[in-house]
């Protein structure tokens, strides 16, 4: 199970969260987000993979941040096309950088899952999130039962306001391609600052599943 903690920004908090047994840590490079990272933190994690979250950004800006933050993962959270994904991967490869590409999709109806097929050649993972006005997440969960209609081969992460309240439902959720969870607002003391104790308890419980 991949556990990704997203929306990080402050060095002290980054250092503490890094050692909770997570696999990915996310940094948001979308200026309207309250968790926007406008400068490189004084500390970046060394023992987990770093993910950059972008929304309808340019390939130039994504590539710059990928190298500045030594990103392992690029998560596209806007309306980026499959062609954009292909171009981005090719540009990074010409610069000697291989990354894991993740494409986020908002899911309100089963039919929306059909659009994932065109992205499968380029994305290592998908992330299924709650629809909301604008971008950046709603802080609310969506109806996970809709994902029973997902028949793709690309593994996915669950996102959308996941908190301790969702532990019983997570323990009951089953899907052959479900590979991880994305945690953010449900564990915040304030935007971009996570509750270490609460996350520790949650991760211990989810790892018992």
Structure explained in plain terms:
This protein has one domain (2-206): Aldolase class I (TIM Barrel). The model has no long low-confidence stretch (mean pLDDT 94). An 8-stranded parallel β-barrel has the order 1-2-3-4-5-6-7-8. A two-stranded antiparallel ribbon has the order 9-10. 33% of the residues are buried. It has 209 residues and is of the alpha/beta class. It is 23% helix and 22% strand. It is globular. The protein has helices at residues 11-18, 59-68, 82-94, 167-172, 196-206; strands spanning 2-5, 24-28, 49-54, 73-76, 100-106, 125-129, 156-158, 178-183, 188-190, 193-194. The termini are close together.
Global morphology: globular
Structural domain count: 1
Distance between the termini: 10 Å
The H/E string reads EHEEHEHEEEHEEEH
- Category by helix and strand content: alpha/beta
């Amino acid at each position: 199970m991949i556990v990704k903690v997203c929306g990080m920004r402050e060095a002290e908090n980054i250092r503490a969260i890094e050692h909770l047994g997570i696999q990915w840590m996310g940094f948001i490079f979308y200026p309207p987000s309250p968790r926007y990272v406008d400068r490189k933190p004084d500390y970046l994690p060394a023992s987990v993979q770093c993910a950059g979250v972008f929304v309808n950004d340019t390939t130039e800006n994504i590539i710059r941040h990928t190298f500045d933050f030594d990103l392992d993962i690029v998560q596209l959270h806007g309306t980026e096309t499959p062609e954009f994904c292909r171009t981005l991967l090719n540009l990074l490869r010409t610069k000697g950088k291989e990354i894991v590409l993740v494409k986020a999709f908002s899911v309100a109806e089963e039919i929306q899952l059909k659009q994932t097929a065109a992205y499968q050649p380029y994305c290592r993972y998908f992330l299924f999130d709650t629809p909301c006005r604008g971008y950046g997440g709603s802080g609310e969960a969506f109806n996970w039962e809709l994902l029973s209609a997902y028949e793709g081969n690309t593994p996915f992460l669950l996102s959308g306001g996941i908190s301790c309240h969702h532990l019983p439902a997570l323990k009951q959720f089953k899907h052959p391609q479900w590979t991880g969870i994305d945690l953010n607002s449900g564990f915040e003391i304030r935007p971009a600052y996570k509750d270490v104790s609460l996350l520790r308890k949650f991760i211990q419980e989810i790892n018992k599943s």
